[in-house]
Amino acid sequence: MNRLITHDLRHTAGIQIVFWLLLFVVSCTSFVSSASAQAPAPAPTEYTLLAPIPLQGAGGNPTEKTNAVQYITGLFKLIIGLAGVLAVVMLIYAGIKYMSTDAFSGKDEAKGVIENAMWGLGLAIAAWLILYTINPKLVEIKFDIPKQKIAPSTLSGGGGGGGVLPGYILTPEQVAEDNRIELDLKKNIPSVTINNNPCVTGATSGCTNVVGLPQQAIEGVKSFALTCQIAMGKNCFVEITGGTEGGHATHGPGLAVIDIGKNLNVNNYIKQKGAPTNTQACSQLGPQYSLNNTIYVDEWTHWHVCY
Predict the structure, then answer these.
(1) Separation of alpha carbons 91 and 249, rounded Å
(2) Can you spell out the DSSP letters for 251-287?
(3) Are 108 and 9 spatial neighbours (Cβ–Cβ below 8 Å)?
């Protein structure tokens, strides 16, 4: 009876040791995987190993230099592989012991070793399968994070002085879109120009953005340049002096509002063809004129245009 109790205790202890060992491996792997999905990727640091090891599996060449990602990935594969190899070795050992002894105690002990080996092998396989079933990415140890695209800022100032839009840094994608819109305006007949380069660094003066400008405003300023030229019989030289950059209270990304520069032809066209109006939907900083369903506000140095 005591012998059976001792055997059961050793059997239970063996299973617990294998279980907690594999649980530790799974926990470490999950932690590394989740951390890699949340933390920014540092620059990989290369390490020189004391002895070359095959981190890419049995068929891979021994590696002398590696980084943390490769090392941890190789270590994880090594632990799973060792668990399988040790389980097979223990099965062979227990099988030989079972066949080579006639004592019941020896056979019981061999059975216990076989059971422990099978439990260990099963847990090793289950650890990988569970992680892979939940999410295949959990068995891929990576510290790099894909670059996220940042959409143009949706910040906007309140109409009529409800708040000034702060400056914002343009992403490479936003700069490319800004350049595309500027080129499209220049190709228009007659062309529409922009007085400054885009505010790449987030400045609010000395630069002009058109990225994030609604198509309604883009087509509106094109139409204005054409109708102004037809009405005045000459090019009106339409130039955008304010767009979606920061520093404005009444226009920004997503708002169909721009500023255009003043000149004789532009001024005469708006004042002669436009009808005086007074709407709360646009700037109140000067006389307003309604022309082709667009409001033009005379703000001293420029025309504030609300489409």
Answers:
(1) 77
(2) --TT--EEEEE--HHHHHHHHHHSEEE--TTS--SS-
(3) no
Share of the chain above pLDDT 70, in %: 70
Q: What's CA 237's distance to the chain center, in Å?
A: 41
Same domain (yes/no): 108, 195? no
- Residues 7, 130, single domain; the answer is yes
pLDDT digits (tens, 9 = 90+) for 14-43: 555 555 555 555 555 444 444 444 444 555
Burial (0-12, 13-18, 19+ Cβ within 10 Å), 239: buried
112, containing H or E segment: helix 104-134
159 part of a folded domain:
no
Domain containing 129 equals 2-139
Looking at the structure, do residues 260 and 195 belong to the same domain, yes or no?
yes
Tokens 């369903």, located at residue: 293
Q: pTM for this structure?
A: 0.49
* CB-CB neighbours of 275 under 10 Å: 8
Last residue of a domain, one of 139, 161, 190: 139
What tokens does 38 get?
């949340």
- Do the Cβ atoms of 75 and 66 come closer than 8 Å? no
Tell me which H or E stretch contains 257.
strand 257-261
Average of per-residue pLDDT across 245-271: 92
Do 37 and 83 sit in the same domain of this protein? yes
Asked if residue 162 lies in contact with residue 249, where contact means CB atoms within 8 angstroms, the answer is yes
